[in-house]
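Handout, page 2. Input:
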Amino acid sequence: MGVVVPREIILDRIWGLERDITSNNIDSYMKILRKKLNEVDGSISIKTVRGIGYRLEA
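Output:
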């Protein structure tokens, strides 16, 4: 936890290099993931590192 994962790495690892998805779609998926994490365990959250990517925090 605490490691920042850049948006480009998320795009490449999940959707691959030949993708029809934009980095703005990541924001939508992160919103869904945050909601699900909050429902299951409110002690873990996804934080946005502005201009870079995302990180998990406990």
